[in-house]
Specification:
There is one protein chain. By secondary structure, the chain is of the alpha/beta class. Helix content is about 45%, strand content about 10%. It has a domain of about 60 residues.
Length: about 375
């Protein structure tokens, strides 16, 4: 990204920052532009001090470029790191050989208490059989916030959804046997319950995304979704234009573009079975329209298996919460992670070897 464009964007948007704001860096791999990240943080820090603004920074990375110098900078600014790590599916779904590297880099991050670490594991219909063992591995590594998502680039079959349900049952069993309190369970969003409402996409409302080409969007997922796409007319509905054009004409561009974002509400979405507005669970549901569009190819059209998977995920989450409410005694090996210290390298390697599948395979 052109540094001059970045500077103009920071200077324009900084007066609109909330007293406590969040600056997130996404990619691709954002650390390929580490110089620009440093420049942005320094500019925001300098401008924000004058207004008493507290900025929180986060970085989504695959971890491949992390080194001591970068970690020093991130720790100095108290960054939150969202590390893309698919556990035992890492070498299947991502670059082969990256599993061992990330297993070695996670302890280095955890040694820096001013860095908040969360892992994000994405499982597909092909790698869902690795879910429960991956959660156990990441937990044993000492990670206290584990995020789980499901990829939709390839359709989910009924057999893969059945496997997802079985894997979730194993995850619940592991958490229940190793943690005494629900607050100790490292499931990132376990305690976050959506308020019953018709949920809408927050893109553009309280956040904006600056893409590498200098264009502005309501959320970072939109330029990723439309990148290389032939859907030029649809892309224009959600793009606020380039930085300079937006700065000059934001009074007219913003409200006009937000009319399109405002339509991204659950009651405007549909599945092959009908309108989401007619579903009994609509007030409990939120499916990202961009994530669903990766499979359905149309924003707002949610494939049946994506809908079914979301319902199953909510059900399993409720079951885990209910299990911890029961006044039963913890298992003998309970709290092995919540009370114990970080495993030694020998213990960690033994854990990895025990959890690793005998051969890399693809779940049909």
């Amino acid at each position: 990204m052109d540094s001059a464009v970045l500077t103009r964007a920071v200077r324009f948007f900084q007066p609109f920052f909330a007293r406590e704001c969040f600056i997130d860096f996404y990619g691709g791999e954002p650390l390929l532009a580490f110089a620009e990240i440093r420049q942005t943080v320094e500019q925001i820090e300098g401008l924000s001090k004058k207004r008493g603004i507290k900025a929180h920074y986060s970085l989504t990375t695959n971890g491949s470029l992390l080194n001591d110098d970068i970690l020093d900078f991130l720790e100095g600014r108290e960054f939150s790191i969202l590390l893309s790590f698919d556990g035992l599916a890492q070498d299947v779904s991502r670059k082969k050989g990256s599993f061992d590297f990330l297993v070695s880099v996670i302890p280095k991050i955890l040694e820096r208490p001013r860095i908040s670490l969360e892992t994000n594991s994405v499982f597909t219909s092909e790698t869902i059989s690795y879910l429960s063992r991956s959660i156990e591995l990441i937990s044993r590594l000492g990670v206290r916030k584990i995020g789980v998502g499901f990829g939709h680039r390839r359709p989910w079959t009924s057999s893969s959804l059945l496997r997802q349900k079985k894997e979730m049952a194993l995850v619940r069993k592991y958490f229940r046997s190793h943690y005494q309190k629900i607050t100790d369970v490292p499931w990132a969003d376990l305690g976050e319950q959506l308020e019953k409402a018709i949920h809408c996409c927050a893109a553009g409302l309280n956040k904006m995304a600056l893409a590498a080409d200098g264009t502005l969007w309501g959320c970072f997922l939109f330029p990723q979704y439309f990148n290389g796409s032939k859907k030029i007319r649809e892309a224009q509905k959600y793009c606020f234009g380039d930085v300079d054009t937006f700065i000059e004409n934001h009074h007219t561009i913003y409200p006009r573009t937000m009319e399109n974002y405002a339509a991204l509400r659950m009651d405007n979405f549909s599945t092959p079975d009908g309108l989401c507005a007619m579903c009994d669970e609509i007030e409990e549901c939120w499916v990202c329209p961009l994530a669903a569009a990766l499979t359905g190819r149309k924003i707002g059209r949610i494939p049946a298996l994506v809908c079914g998977g979301a319902k199953m995920w909510r059900k399993e989450k409720r079951r885990l919460l209910e299990q911890f409410k029961k006044p039963n005694q913890p298992d003998k090996d309970a709290a092995a992670n919540s009370l114990g210290g970080f495993p030694s390298q020998r213990e960690l390697r033994r854990c990895v070897d025990n959890l690793r599948p005998p051969a890399v395979g693809i779940f049909p």
